[in-house]
Amino acid sequence: MRRIPGGSGLAIALGAILFSSAILVPLSFDGITQTTIAFGGPPALTLSVTMTGRSITPSEIHVPRASAVRVEVKNLDGPRDGHRLKTSGQQYDVDIAVWGGLNKSDTFLTAQKPGRYPLICSIRGHVSEGMVAVLVVD
């Protein structure tokens, strides 16, 4: 998954011309193609992920390929226990850090190539304690 860029000059210029429409731009790199939303359009799906103790729930997350997906992360632990939901060894970048007791969300683009991609809590020691999940691109 790749993070959707914030307010680029291109998106602003296109927004002035096409006020409320979406522009899809196919990108290709390393033999994998993705579709980037340059402007407009809501996420295709919103996912809720809970991180607590040393677990990520749900442990297997299914998403459609080549879609914008909003991920809402809830950390149910105390204020001193932060978690960081990240892809592991992928060029699809999910990276959401959230302190205990708080929620945070971000929108990403899923790969066009179907597959299983590991999601981990990248805080030291959390993976070895079982804080892992799988992102399945259908």
Structure description:
The chain has 138 residues and is mainly β. The chain has a domain at 42-137: Immunoglobulin-like (Sandwich), CATH 2.60.40.420. 7% of the residues lie in helices and 50% in strands. The chain has one helix at residues 9-17, and strands at residues 2-3, 23-29, 32-39, 45-52, 55-57, 60-63, 68-75, 83-87, 95-98, 103-109, 115-121, 132-137. The strands form three sheets. Strands 1-10-7-4-5 form a five-stranded mixed β-sheet, with no helix packed on it. Strand 8 (83-87) and strand 9 (95-98) form a beta hairpin. The longest helix has 9 residues, at 9-17. It is globular and about 35 Å long. Mean pLDDT is 76; it is low at 9-39.
Helix content: under 10%
CATH architecture of the domain at 42-137: Sandwich
The share of residues in extended strands comes to over 45%
The Cα radius of gyration reads 16 Å
The H/E string reads EHEEEEEEEEEEE
CATH class of the domain at 42-137: Mainly Beta
What name does the CATH topology of the domain at 42-137 carry? Answer: Immunoglobulin-like
Structure classification = mainly beta
Q: What is the number of strand segments?
A: 12
Q: Regions with pLDDT < 50 over 5+ consecutive residues? A: 9-39
